Structure formats: structure tokens, C-alpha cells
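Repro:
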Amino acid sequence: MNKKQNSPRYQAHSAPATQKSPLDEARDELFQHIMRCGVIGAELEHQTEWFEATITYFAGRYPELTKLELTQLRTLGERFAQPLKTKQAV
């Protein structure tokens, strides 16, 4: 074996992997679901139903999340699903 390849100096320089918290993982997954499922632009009634079902699903998928964290997750998702605010000319 070549000593150069085994020395730390020649190993790939990559940032150490940081593990996400369950809340961070759930948030990222929720945002992906929102984009994939067409929640943005849906009627408020449909969004409400979708979030109720989805947060119930996430409670089972991420049992380590507290009720407060699930509430925060839903709030983040609802904000993410809101239409963009545009600046109006003055």
C-alpha cells in the first residue's frame, strides 16, 4: 500500500457530519411534503385538513417530538405554505 494514501494529510477534507435533531429532520421532511403535495395555493379548508392528518402522521413517525414541538412544526409548515407577500407600489 502507498503510505501517502493512508496518511491523514491525504484523506479527503470534509466537514464533520452533524446529526440533525428530530425536530430539524421532521421540519425538513414536512417542507418537502408541502412542496410535493401541492399544499401551497390550496384552499384554507384543505390546508387545515392536510396539516391535521400530516401532523398526526409525524407524531407517529417522530415519537420523540413533544406536543409543543409538534405544534411548532405545524406553525412552521403553515407559514411555509402561505403565498409569497409582494411589495405594493407606493
